[in-house]
Amino acid sequence: MADKHFNIAVVGATGAVGNTMLACLEERNFPTKSVRLLASERSRGRSLPFRGEQIAVEVLDKNSFEGVDIAIFSAGGGTSKEFSPIAAAAGCVVVDNSSAWRMDPDVPLVVPEVNPHAVAGYTKKGIIANPNCSTIQMVVALAPLHKEAVIERLVISTYQAVSGTGKKAVDELEAQVKAIAEGRPVEKKVYPHQIAYNCLPHIDRFLDSGYTFEEMKMVNETRKIMEDDSIRVTATTVRVPVFYGHSESVNIQTKKKLTRERVWELLKTAPGVRVVDDPANNVYPLAIEAAGQDLTFVGRVREDDSIENGINMWIVADNIRKGAATNAVQIAEILAEKYL
User: Fold this and answer.
1) How much is the mean pLDDT over the chain?
2) Residue 237 is inside which H or E element, if any?
3) CB atoms within 10 A of CB 120
């Protein structure tokens, strides 16, 4: 990849994830020939820094992808549905961060530490999907266990930061905390209930089954990424008053017995994972320490004696970085190195 350079577009560049994608391209020294920043009409006139220069934001239209090699999208499902095929038709490979293409059988769903080989499937539609943030961090930690002992069932509870909803949710949490401290009424605009000092067992829309779309994303995406439809998965996803960093409690049942010590051994050599597990000294993964980092942190590993071959673990990662922007840039790196 060192001798090749690429024309890159970032769609939704002015949003929190798009902004972080641009930062990741710079931090990881991605071999860019040019960078085009694309957003909606309301971002016209803005510019963003990249490698010491200010790059003007252009308004996204059907001609935005001429000459572009890779377009990284983070502009919502509707925009992705409309413009990803346009970009692909222009000869550009799309890495899409929305949920629009994740379960399309002709679109690979990729976490580079888990299924990098799946990138090769981009040729079917010219699109690669970036998974849901909660799914990404979980499968990074689960992949080495599945390879060793075959995961049969997962019971997941997530504790997800408000930044997963967007900047307005971050602002709302901050405003509510301030209002409560000052004795003023709390205003609710983003969430149906107060999020400050509260937990909402409600992420995305509810289905007739009683599950939410977010919960079913974790079920379906996990199976697709792990390439095993036999894994039984159930999830409860919860929004918590944390700014950045999703946390997850995951109960795992495997076909083959895994001891706590063996899980530690597997995770300590797993790509993208850092084991943080010394509870006797109050050392375990924390959202405030994962924020701003690209690793997936795992701790509180323990055997579950209530089921056969059971393991519990606590998984934490930055939802904006590894859960979105960094994962997308890692996919682009594989494309650039092996396929373009």
Assistant:
1) 97
2) strand 232-239
3) 14
DSSP assignments along 89-112, one per residue? HTTPEEEE-SSSSTT-TTS-B--T
Does the structure show a pLDDT above 70 at 114? yes
Token readout for 313 is: 């673990």
Domains, the chain: 6-130+324-339 (3.40.50.720), 134-319 (3.30.360.10)
Selection from 20, 24, 4, 2 nearest residue 12 by Cα: 20
- Residue 86: which of 107, 65, 108 has the closest Cα? 65
Residue 241 CB-density burial (10 A; 0-12 exposed, 13-18 middle, 19+ buried)? middle
Residue 20 near residue 10, CB atoms below 8 Å: no
Under DSSP, is residue 144 helix (H, G, I), strand (E, B) or coil?
helix
**9 token code pair:** 């577009």
- DSSP conformational letter for 185: P
- DSSP state, residue 271: T
**Which own/partner contact pairs does 170-173 have at CB distance under 8 Å and 24+ positions apart?**
170/243, 173/241, 173/243
| Distance separating alpha carbons of residues 222 and 16, to the nearest angstrom | 25
CA 104 – CA 255 distance, rounded (Å)? 29
State the burial class of residue 86 (Cβ atoms within 10 Å of its Cβ: 0-12, 13-18, 19+): middle
- In sequence order, the 6+-apart residues with CB closer than 8 A to the CB of 261 are none
**Which residues are catalytic, by number?**
133, 246
| pLDDT greater than 90 at residue 138 | yes
